[in-house]
Amino acid sequence: MNQQWDLSALYKGYDDPNYLADTEALKATIGEYQRFAGQLKEQKDAGAALHRTLELREKIELLGYRLFAYAVLRSSTDSADAETAAQCGRLEAALSECSAADAAFTAYLAGIDDLDALIEKDALLQDYAYLLHERKQEAAYVLDEKVEEALAKMNLSGGSAWENLQQYLTSTVKVDYRGQTLTLSAVRNLAYDKDPAVRKDAYDAELACYDKIKDGVCFALNDLKKQVNTECELRGETSPLERTLRHSRMQRSTLDAMITAIEEYLPVFQSYLKAKARLLGYEGGLKWWDLFAPVGKNTATYTVEQARDYLIDHFKGFAPDMAEMMNRAFDEAWIDFYPRNGKVGGAFCENLPFAKQSRLLTNFDGSFGDIVTLAHELGHAYHGQQIENHRPLNWDYSMPVAETASTFNETVIMNAALAETTDREVKLGLLESQLQDTTQIMCDIMSRYWFETAVFEKSKDSFLFPDELCAMMKQAQLRAYGDGINPDTLHPYMWVCKSHYYSTQQSFYNFPYAFGGLFAAGLYAQYRKEGEAFLPKYRALLNATTVKSAEDVAAMAGIDLSSVDFWRSSLEIFRDRVDQFLELVS
């Protein structure tokens, strides 16, 4: 079985005739789009003008998506590759040329009074009805065409460059660990080791390595957040959070209800952390390097082949089409498994709907947690499968719902594993593994949300040096973890290693994980009640995530996201897990 993914379904290299032809076709289509957008005001048939604009934008989406996905996927496994960096730069520059035309299209759309009447007459417009109405509303925040073009081009050496710098520094930094030189991903994976001395030494080595790169990453974070603040001010947006919620197709009332419920339940997760500390032999808050310490008998290691068999065995009874897709993912080399120098940390899934495939990156070390991570990323792939038959401009789902299918998969795999065992130690290990992940999407995600909120506010009129960023991170962690964590063992450099902070397009990529976890828990509760009858509803719900708001998607399952009680009901599921854990360790 391949250890690295196969990208030949996209291209065979930068000298592939198809890559070269598509690059030229992209440039030509962008030029045609620019010319047509410049003539929109002269078009007398608004319906035909919209139809032609969408056709051109579709073609750009198909070409740009394939080209850029190829380059980005290559970059994620070798961030020091100069040729790939150059290709990414060229593609970003080419796609930035669409900005002025996009602004002209949005302005033209805003001036159409009878949009619904035009939509009724044209099948293509009907497919894009949600998108058209959304773009029309977005017109309130779109600047002059020339300004939009300038912002897009300046971003290439601004926010996008800062994002690349953080990725490059964290993927290439050398970590000195017990006389060895490791990558950052490899040393972070040691947090799951069964030996407490290994975990502590890895934690110390990790923190020490950040001293080499903290200044560069610090400048990246400051200037990227300043850029987002400036853009929001120029566009008349009240804050980066308001902008994120609008792009997330999510109401502020939903976010407020969810955070209210999470804050109420933080003591529940803190009690779990203190219980785990007692289980490991000490009182007080858990030491940071023990957050992922394995307990119980859940210390088995798995090969990639065993991980595949485990996943397929557990999902074929839930959704056969998902098990079939998982088998394809392993057999057709969709997955890049192991850490190596130059490869980015963490895990992600890149859907490739034009190819009816996905590509998954992990940093696999064989733990049960890695099986859960694979289930999570394969959930993203399954979500991609449900939306791949939409038209190209309807392929993007928003951040909150993006984590729904992935977290649902985690719930399925963990609950199935728990139901299969009667062994106390095995059950303890499984419960602890699930609570590890849940505590991350509650406590850790809340700390990230509070930290990013503070960074956006303070960076408006001051520069935040590494020491201040570390202090802010520790303050956010103390607020989220409370007495569940030993305050002398916090992780002040979490702002360095988490790529989620480093994007001008996706600020606050933290609360969607909490949303996904709790929304998935509510959906799983429905599945337990309805059985197989739930699956068509689930697939329809995932299919709708690209053409509906988060609230309307949830309503398909009878869920009111603005109700604090819904979020409390999901959190009660996790309280029950914590109670089971406390009973086992008592």
Overview of this protein structure:
The radius of gyration is 24 Å and the shape is globular. It has 586 residues and is mainly α. It has 25 helices and five strands. The chain has helices at residues 17-38, 46-77, 82-96, 99-110, 115-120, 123-127, 129-138, 145-156, 159-172, 184-189, 196-235, 240-247, 252-279, 304-315, 320-331, 368-387, 399-402, 404-420, 424-458, 466-481, 494-497, 511-530, 534-544, 550-555, 564-585; strands at residues 175-177, 180-182, 335-336, 348-352, 357-361. The model has no long low-confidence stretch (mean pLDDT 94). The strands form two sheets. Strands 3-5-4 form a three-stranded mixed β-sheet, sandwiched between helices. A two-stranded antiparallel ribbon has the order 1-2.
Give me the secondary-structure topology.
Layout: H1 17-38, H2 46-77, H3 82-96, H4 99-110, H5 115-120, H6 123-127, H7 129-138, H8 145-156, H9 159-172, E1 175-177, E2 180-182, H10 184-189, H11 196-235, H12 240-247, H13 252-279, H14 304-315, H15 320-331, E3 335-336, E4 348-352, E5 357-361, H16 368-387, H17 399-402, H18 404-420, H19 424-458, H20 466-481, H21 494-497, H22 511-530, H23 534-544, H24 550-555, H25 564-585
Parallel strand pairs: 3-5
Antiparallel strand pairs: 1-2, 4-5
